[in-house]
Write a structure and sequence with these properties.
Elements lengths: L18 H51 L8 E3 L3 H4 L6 E9 L3 E4 L11 E5 L9 E11 L5 E11 L6
Antiparallel strand pairs: 1-2, 2-5, 3-4, 5-6
Length: about 170
């Protein structure tokens, strides 16, 4: 007997995917999508942190520029909350504080915890205690608290020479 084409036994075709193969592919796809979503979350958090840092740096630099244009005799310690249009970035409020230490070339802040709290400036470098140094040390800091309640700050230091004194 010939078992060729007319015998009634058919070969199965293997076209398409089984249900198990489709389910495994979906699981792999979902795991990949969760990884991409996690990366997207960290990218947004990083962008927010970068925006806040950039805003604080710009506000601190702006304050330093104001200090450069202020008369030497009018330099004083102070603080402010910049105008709402400039200060609020994504709902975050910034506070600026600055310290001026006259007749000083370098200063430190007492109990400095990198905030804009009630800190006092102390001159820690006066080359000759008997003679007045014709410069003021200036430290400016911009502080903010992020959405998670974590405090941050940007600090810049500079020296301002008394332009009225002839050496």
């Amino acid at each position: 007997m010939d078992r060729g084409q007319g015998s009634g036994v058919r070969k199965q075709r293997k076209d398409g995917f089984t249900l198990i193969e489709v389910m495994i592919a979906l699981v792999v796809l979902v795991v990949g999508m969760l990884g991409v979503m996690g990366m997207q979350y960290y990218a947004v958090v990083g962008n927010t942190s970068s925006r806040d840092m950039r805003t604080a740096t710009n506000l601190t630099q702006q304050l330093m520029e104001q200090m450069r244009s202020t008369a030497y005799t009018a330099l004083t310690t102070g603080n402010d909350a910049p105008a709402a249009g400039t200060a609020i970035s994504g709902g975050v409020n910034f506070t600026r504080r600055w310290w001026v230490s006259a007749d000083c070339v370098a200063m430190t802040l007492t109990n400095d915890d990198n905030t804009c709290g009630n800190l006092a400036a102390v001159c820690n470098s006066d080359p000759d205690g008997a003679l007045a140094v014709q410069s003021s040390a200036i430290r400016a800091r911009t502080c903010w608290t992020d959405k998670n309640g974590v405090p941050h700050s940007v600090t810049m230091d500079t020296l301002r020479w008394n332009e009225n004194v002839v050496p």
